[in-house]
């Protein structure tokens, strides 16, 4: 059994440039002339972001490969507009014993009421408890999973005993507009116009994705940050 506390995010392919946002926007006013190179980009992108003209940000794509616990994948797939997914299937392959365990940087104790709560680190005893109980539960569940497989039980039936802490892998494809909406909800940032309360594990994935986005489309990312991290 392998215990992990990290997330894997790989940018597999992309067609994402700042210039394409400006070109898509200009077709509204100048038609075919929008394809001529050398036209300014930064001011137009900031205007589009500020006034929430969103469709020009959809003419691009980014495809990520992600390894994360099932609980993160299920949160991910709440995001449907502008996203496409394909996930590893426990119906077709035997799932491997790779499980998530929080490391010492992960706060453990929720303080406050829903909608206005914080997380605190927890005591050393609580940290030891989490590590011990996670490992024990994972060992028990995976032992019974493999036992059922060895007795001829179908994979799609046996997988039901596995916990949401087991790692899964999936492809996620989005455009810049849908990615910015995801980032506005799944990261905390002091520049945000609205508060967000992401679970730490999906925030780890979101932060890695944002780093790729910032590199590919720096002008768009800067406009996103400057205008309150609100998707147009």
TrEMBL record:
* Keywords assigned: FAD, Flavoprotein, Methyltransferase, NADP, Nucleotide biosynthesis, Transferase
Q: State its Enzyme Commission number(s).
A: 2.1.1.148
Domain of life, per the record? Answer: Bacteria
Any idea which residues are catalytic in this one?
186
Textual note on the cofactor = Binds 4 FAD per tetramer. Each FAD binding site is formed by three monomers.
Provide the reaction this enzyme catalyses: dUMP + (6R)-5,10-methylene-5,6,7,8-tetrahydrofolate + NADPH + H(+) = dTMP + (6S)-5,6,7,8-tetrahydrofolate + NADP(+)
Give residues annotated as binding FAD: 55, 78-80, 87, 175-177, 181
One GO biological-process annotation of the entry reads: dTTP biosynthetic process
PROSITE patterns found in the cross-reference section: THYX
Which positions are annotated as binding dUMP? 75-78, 87-91, 159, 186
What pathway annotation does it carry? Answer: Pyrimidine metabolism; dTTP biosynthesis
Name of the top EC class for this enzyme: transferase
The record ties this protein, via InterPro entries, to: Thymidylate_synthase_ThyX, Thymidylate_synthase_ThyX_sf
Instruction: Note the subunit structure.
Output: Homotetramer.
NCBIfam families, per this entry? thyX (TIGR02170)
* Record family assignment: Belongs to the thymidylate synthase ThyX family.
Q: What is this protein called?
A: Flavin-dependent thymidylate synthase
Phylogenetic placement of the source organism: Bacteria, Bacillati, Actinomycetota, Actinomycetes, Kitasatosporales
């Amino acid at each position: 059994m392998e215990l992990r506390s990290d997330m894997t995010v790989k940018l597999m392919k992309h067609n994402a440039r700042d210039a394409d946002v400006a070109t898509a926007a200009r077709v509204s006013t100048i038609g075919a002339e929008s394809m001529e190179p050398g036209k300014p980009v930064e001011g137009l992108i900031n205007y589009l972001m500020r006034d929430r003209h969103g469709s020009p940000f959809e003419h691009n794509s980014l495809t990520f490969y992600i390894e994360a616990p099932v609980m993160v994948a299920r949160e991910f797939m709440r995001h449907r507009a502008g996203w496409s997914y394909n996930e590893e299937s426990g119906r077709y392959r035997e799932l491997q014993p790779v499980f998530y365990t929080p490391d010492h940087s992960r706060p453990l104790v929720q303080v406050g009421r829903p909608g206005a709560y914080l997380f605190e680190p927890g005591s050393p005893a609580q940290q030891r408890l989490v590590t011990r109980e996670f490992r024990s539960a994972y060992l028990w569940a995976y032992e019974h999973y493999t036992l059922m497989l060895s007795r001829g039980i179908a994979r799609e039936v046996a997988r039901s005993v596995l916990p949401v802490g087991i790692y899964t892998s999936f492809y996620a494809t989005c455009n810049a507009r849908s990615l910015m909406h995801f980032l506005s909800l799944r990261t905390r940032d002091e520049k945000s116009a609205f508060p967000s309360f992401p679970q730490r594990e999906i925030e780890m994935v979101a932060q890695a994705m944002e780093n790729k986005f910032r590199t590919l489309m720096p002008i768009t990312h800067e406009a996103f940050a400057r205008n309150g991290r609100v998707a147009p």
